[in-house]
Amino acid sequence: MSSIIGNRIIKVNKLLVKQFGIPPRQKELPDSVDMIIATILSQNTNDKNSYKAFQNLKKKYKSWNELLKVRRTTIEKEIRVAGLGFQKSTAIKNFVKEIYLERDIISLSHIENMDNNSAILELTKYKGVGVKTASCVLLFAEGRNVCPVDTHVHRTVNRIGIVNTSTPDKTFAKLNKKFPLKIAHQFHTNFIRLGREVCTPQKPSCGVCPVKIECAFDDKNEFNSKMKKERKFMLLDSVNLEN
Ligand code: SF4
């Protein structure tokens, strides 16, 4: 199974790299706690707004320990620009509280020596941290060869026919059973771009799609050749950046 999926991943990845190039990465990997908080903030909003919310928190609090004493409603005000303030502030507050109670420090250094599955299980035990958030920590903060699956990746890999699954978490499990070495970051990042700019939920632009030759989607929209220009900024590759 895995080698069939793996071979398709490699083929599609080559086509995407030919079109979009190899996405740049930050020289220094960000801290894992920063990454969890940034990923929580990134849910259901654009990268620019979640980055603003993340910067608001980083500027206001010298360390995440300060969030232990801050009311949830205060955090909600700081992150309002990212939307879903109640859910996101609750998840952030829960996360810092739970990890501090358990470890006496707000740090994820204990997952460094865990294998990928154990690390995902460990991270998802915190309320508000799902498989996508946990896998973003492994890819972006730990530099592991893990491909997170959001709605864009889920939709496009299913349309292409690399997997046939009903939820992003099931797609994640299938894709990552044995992900081809060293290409998870470029595959993930280029798929986000493909999903935002070309293979959009409604009316995909199949007329200009770089992976059309590999795509098994029955409802291809061959006459749409408009590529959206949405790749201004990728939050999770920018967590270390200062304003
Ligand atoms: S050919 Fe169309 S449906 Fe297939 S991946 Fe490209 S845009 Fe999406």
Summarize the structure.
The chain is an all-alpha fold and 243 residues long. The protein has helices at 2-20, 32-42, 47-60, 72-78, 85-103, 116-123, 131-141, 151-160, 168-175, 184-197.
Overview of the molecule:
There is one protein chain. With 243 residues, the protein is an all-alpha fold. 38% of the residues are buried. It has helices at 2-20, 32-42, 47-60, 72-78, 85-103, 116-123, 131-141, 151-160, 168-175, 184-197. Helices cover 50% and strands 0% of the residues. It is built from ten helices and no strands. The chain has two domains: 2-25 and 146-235, Endonuclease Iii, domain 2 (Orthogonal Bundle); 32-141, Endonuclease III, domain 1, CATH 1.10.340. It binds iron/sulfur cluster. Iron/sulfur cluster binds at residues 156, 159-160, 198-199, 204-206, 209, 211-212, 215, 217, 220.
Molecules bound to protein: iron/sulfur cluster
The first-to-last residue Cα distance is: 45 Å
- Class by SSE composition: mainly alpha
Q: Give me the number of helical elements.
A: 10
For the largest beta-sheet, the strand count, sense and barrel status come to: none
Instruction: Tell me the overall shape.
Output: globular
| Strand-residue proportion | under 5%
CATH level-3 fold name of the largest domain: Endonuclease Iii, domain 2
CATH homology superfamily name of the largest domain: Helix-hairpin-Helix base-excision DNA repair enzymes (C-terminal)
CATH level-two architecture of the largest domain: Orthogonal Bundle
The H-and-E topology, N to C, reads as HHHHHHHHHH
- Helix fraction by DSSP (H/I, runs of at least 4): 40-55%
Please tally the β strands and state the result.
0
Rg of Cα set: 18 Å
